């Protein structure tokens, strides 16, 4: 089941807080230091995670590195061929993951064989297509599952959180300047 991601944005003019100068004089002079107020705001937007990432992998062992590499390559190529038939941009994207070979050492400290691991990643928004494709692949098995936000959804959520934080900042600054009896405020970095 997809989880909910919280996108948090804090609004500030220059750093983590913003300074407000209350203006009581009609001249464009900065207000005295006594009229300085530190203010920061934030906003949170909850978004359902819409991006599934499945990592499929296999581990092989052999007496020599070439044997392990050949086994891994064969398993990965078969899996890629199967997955690419189902690929569709944004819905099911297919890519390779890490591919590595490592020596295996005996009790005497000498290399007595080789092992390796290969990965393929299936990712996208079409959960049924992704899981169905993973289930059809015989040469690799699922080793990791993750949910996240698609890049476009993350950007939209961040923009929404930022807009909310800015609106809260402006609203709070206006309320505070009125409470102190000033006609307005200006942001100062």
CATH architecture of the largest domain: 2-Layer Sandwich
Strand content: 35-45%
What would CATH call the homologous superfamily of the largest domain? Protein of unknown function (DUF541), domain 2
Radius of gyration: 28 Å
3D structure, described in words:
A four-stranded antiparallel β-sheet has the order 6-7-5-8, with helices on one face. Strands 3-2-9 form a three-stranded antiparallel β-sheet, covered by helices on one side. The chain has two domains: 4-48 and 162-188, no CATH class; 51-148, Alpha-Beta Plaits (2-Layer Sandwich), CATH 3.30.70. 20% of the residues are buried. Strand 6 and strand 7 (111-124) form a beta hairpin. The protein is of the alpha+beta class and 189 residues long. The model is unreliable at 11-27 (pLDDT under 50). Helix content is 31%, strand content 40%.
């Amino acid at each position: 089941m997809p989880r909910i991601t919280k996108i948090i944005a804090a609004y500030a003019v220059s750093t983590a807080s913003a300074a407000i100068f209350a203006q009581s004089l009609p001249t464009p002079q900065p207000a005295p230091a006594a009229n300085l107020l530190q203010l920061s705001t934030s906003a949170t937007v909850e978004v359902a995670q819409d991006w599934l990432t499945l990592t499929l992998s296999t581990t092989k062992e052999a007496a020599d590195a070439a044997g392990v590499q050949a086994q891994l390559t064969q398993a990965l190529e078969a899996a890629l061929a199967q997955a690419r038939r189902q690929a569709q941009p944004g819905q099911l994207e297919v890519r390779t993951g890490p591919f590595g070979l490592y020596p295996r050492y005996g009790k005497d400290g000498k290399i007595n064989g080789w092992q390796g691991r290969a990965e393929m990643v299936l990712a996208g928004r079409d959960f049924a297509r992704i899981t169905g494709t993973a289930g059809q692949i015989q040469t690799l098995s699922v080793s990791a599952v993750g949910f996240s936000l698609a890049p476009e959804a993350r950007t939209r959520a961040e923009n929404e959180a930022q807009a909310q934080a800015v609106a809260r900042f402006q609203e709070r600054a206006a309320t505070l300047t009125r409470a102190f009896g000033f006609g307005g405020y200006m942001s100062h970095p």
